[in-house]
Amino acid sequence: xxxxxxxxxxxxxxxxxxxxxxxxxxxxxxxxxxxxxxxxxxxxxxxxxxxxxxxxxxxxxxxxxxxxxxxxxxxxxxxxxxxxxxxxxxxxxxxxxxxxxxxxxxxxxxxxxxxxxxxxxxxxxxxxxxxxxxxxxxxxxxxxxxxxxxxxxxxxxxxxxxxxxxxxxxxxxxxxxxxxxxxxxxxxxxxxxxxxxxxxxxxxxxxxxxxxxxxxxxxxxxxxxxxxxxxxxxxxxxxxxxxxxxxxxxxxxxxxxxxxxxxxxxxxxxxxxxxxxxxxxxxxxxxxxxxxxxxxxxxxxxxxxxxxxxxxxxxxxxxxxxxxxxxxxxxxxxxxxx
Length: 338
Hints:
By secondary structure, this protein is mostly helical. 77% of the residues lie in helices and 0% in strands.
């Protein structure tokens, strides 16, 4: 009974936090005006309508999809690698996406003498495509190696090494780049839910709406992996194929989120621990949906804090996710220890 109550609370919090995100900010908008705008009745202020529909609604939907995707990917990684410190970026996929963006922002600026800076890097679409190409290239390598490498530890080390290689190449590109291009790349690396605008938000949310329900189908194999590989094999589980499916699921979720929002840290690492502490169980039939809803809630809270009234613009989302989520995760872990 307790687990269903907690799940219901997490679900109800999503629309409540979403409405608060739509109303609060540097320009406060009353809740009744927000509802009127959402239901197409219009508002007395055209500025409020534009703020809600053109800025805050895409940002809110992006936060929900991003938080849910990273939380599910983190839970899958922690289970398949039997490592509580594993996260969505553990296989170097986020680093590879960053490398793709670095090539677009830094290398093109070096060759073209700041050409990309002057033209806004061909818009967010160019950065998104570059991040997807970089992430999916490494994803293909990881999937190939997962069929050739037996131990999870070896695959984990390969992912870490890929991350180091990507960081090294990015460092070289920074050395030969202009200050404007380096600044633009650093801003992208801070992560943002506001980067997804226009038609991109519908593509992003649509992709996540397809991938997240498919990830729920992995609950049974994930539960079997918790018993250990020998027990899972005796129960008829194909370890190689299952590992491929889980890594592919987590990798694709991470790649898409990083491509659209930048490298969002901490959510994928902390949310699974928060859910285990709240629900006090390791059944993935509960943990997967719980992580999905909890990740969406935490992302909305972080997005709200990042653009509280009084701030010009918004704080870096990665700073907020770490400051808000880390104490919560520590409290849950220490509570479980006691």
